[in-house]
Amino acid sequence: MLPATNGGQLQTFISQPGFHSYDPKVKPTYTMTFSLGVQQQITPDMSFTMTYVGNLSRHLQLYGAPNTAPGLWRPGTNTNPFNPFPDLGGIGEVHYAGVSTYNSLQAKVEKRYSHGLTFLATYTWSHALDDASDAGGLFTAIGNRQPALIPYIDELTNSVFDVRNRFTINGNYELPFGHGRAFLSNSPRWIDEIAGGWSSSLTYAAQTGTPFTVSPNISTASGGGARAFPVRSPFAGGGAPDPSNPSLTSCPAQVKTKLNYFNPCAFRNPLPGEMISDATHPVGSVNPDGVPVKFQAPVTDRATAIALLGSPQNNIYGPGYYQVNMSLFKNFPTFREQNLQFRADAFNVLIHPTLGGGPNGSMNANGGLISGPKFFQNNTPDARFFQLALKYIF
Question: Is there a single domain that holds both residue 294 and residue 354?
Answer without folding.
Answer: no
